[in-house]
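We store chain and fold; example below:
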Amino acid sequence: MAAFGASDVPVSATANPDPRPSKRRRPHEGMQLRHSRRCRSLAGGACSCTPSYQAQVWSPRDGKPIRKTFATLGEARAWRQESQVALRTGTLRAPSQTTLQEAAEDWLAAAAAGVIRTRSGDAYKPSALRAYQQALRHRVLPALGQKRLTGISTNMLQDLADGLAGAGLAPSSIRNTILPLRAIYRRAHTRGEVALNPTLKLSLPAVRGQRERVARPDEATALLAALPLTDRAIWATALYAGLRLGELQALDWNHIDLDNNLIHIERSWDRSAGFIQPKSRSGTRHTYAAYMIAAGINTKALSTYMGHASITITLDRYGHLLPGNEHQAATLLDGWLRANAEHGR
C-alpha cells in the first residue's frame, strides 16, 4: 500500500476525529482518517467526502507495518485488535512481495536438485515434477501466478477448484492440480514465509476408487499370442511379473536370476533423467498381484513382494476375486466344510 499522503490524518479517540495530525503517535501505531484527494477539507474547508479509516499494526518479526482500510472506525479498531492478537500468536505476517509464480519456480528448481523432498524423505521423481509443472503452468499460474504468495486465500483456491469442476475436469485431475500448491505452501509455512497455509481447508470433489479390471488368464494368453514372437517375452514379463515400462528399460542381465526364477528391480529409466530409483515399491501392479492371489500364493509373501508396509494393505487393495472366481471359491469352501463334517469337526 502506498505511504500516507496529504489525505491521511490520525484518528483520535473521540466520536468526531480531529483531522489535525497528531505528534504523539508513532507512524506504526493507531489509525488514519483518509479523505479523498478532492475533499475540500484538504484546503481547510469542510469535509466534502466520505472518509475511510486505515488501521495499522507493527510486525516486529517483519520489521514493518501491516495496514488495512475500512469504511468505519469500528471495523478498523476491531481489525487492529484482532491483528495484534494474530501477531502475538504467529498467524499474521506482513505481506511479502514474492509472487506465486516466483515461489513455484523456486520450489520446482529446489525439488529437481533434491533439496526439497517428499514428506517421506524421498526425492521427487522426474515424472512427478513434470506433472506438477504441467498443472501449475496450465491451470494455476495463468489465474494466480502474479498474486503475492501471502495474498492468496483459501477462498481464491476454492474458486479455482470449483471453476475446474465446473469446466468438467475429473476429480482426480482437480486434486492433482492442487497437489503442487500444497507442496509449495507446506514448505513456505514451515519456513515461516507465510503465516497460514490456504490449501488446508479446501473442499475438493471426491475421487471414487474404480476397481481396475484384471485380464482373465485366457485373455492374457490370447493377448500374448497375438504378438510377434520376438515381442512376447518382454510383454509377458510386464504382465506376469508386474514390471513397468521404465523398469523393463532399465533391466540388465545381472538383474535376472534364471536359476531361482527371480528378477531384481534395482532401478528404472526416465526419458529425461536417465537411470533413476524405481518407483515406490507400494505402487500398483494390479494384474500381477491378482494372479498371485488366485494362484494361492501366501499373502504374507505377496505383501513382501509388493513392498507393502503390512499385509492389511495387500488384502485391502488386492483381496477381491478375479472375474469368474466365485465358483472356484464356493467349491473350495464346500470341500472344506465336507472334510470337517466327515471328521466331526
Observations:
- Residues 171-190 form the longest helix (20 residues).
- Residues 1-9, 11-28 have pLDDT under 50 and may be disordered.
- Residues 212 and 286 are 8 Å apart (CA to CA).
